[in-house]
Amino acid sequence: MSAPNPLSATPAPPQRPAMPDNTTAIADFNSLPDNRPPFRDAPSVIIGHLSLPDHKQPEPDWVVFLAHYMRTHRETGNGYQSVADLQYLFLLISRVLLPNAIVENRQLLLEVFTVYPGLQGYNRLRYDAFDNSPRGKDDVDSIHVVVAPSGGDHRNLPFDYPVQEKVQQPLALDKRFHIPPRSIFASTTTPNGTDFVAWLIDSPLPLVNGAELGQMAHQKSQLDIYMTLPEVELRALNLLQLVRRTTRLLQMWFWLTGNNVRLQQHKSNQWTTFGEEM
């Protein structure tokens, strides 16, 4: 009896790349010190929003939040470290928080389409429908960025402004820092966004009553571009480009986590109210 030909075997379905949960990822990300190398500095107000987004309140003005990174670093006194910290924030969102929100979105949508397999048409709560949202229709390069002055009234800034002896100087928005790639975590490597998007594309469609759920097929969107942006390209962006793209990424993440909240509400109604999203 001849041995089975390994080349003729059905390939195993792709496995979702390993991804830390948000709580673990944020705790690890935020565990690096801000007063000694590697000088990780993330404002607590941003960490708070990423940990517990409040969709009962209006979306934050992310550019104002990111003003923290548009000045010389409060410990090192240079702009290099401030820009590096903003790059780390971009990677945390694009490689972990946004993918985890997508996984949750797909799990909830699978429940919807398992109950209503014949439900077809545009669904505004899908993770890949961002391009059709109001934010998604805006050009990222139209995002207005202003560096807050280093003096004057800072009471409206959503973070603690440094004391006078550590005044941070504003950075030029056209400044580029070619910062070497480095893991965003203290204990593990940064997840690979390209592998995650490949899993979204290549995963077989789930079956309901023997039929594929075509509604679960991945559609390309701006989210793919942000999750797969090579780290070397990210780290070569000038400050203006980086702030705009991090702002857009935060908008994507906030939009998607809000969609997941709405999906959970429809789930609590046994999906009977989901039709209003079509």
UniProtKB/TrEMBL annotation:
Residues 1-33 are annotated as: Disordered. It comes from the Eukaryota. This is Uncharacterized protein. The lineage of its organism: Eukaryota, Fungi, Dikarya, Ascomycota, Pezizomycotina.
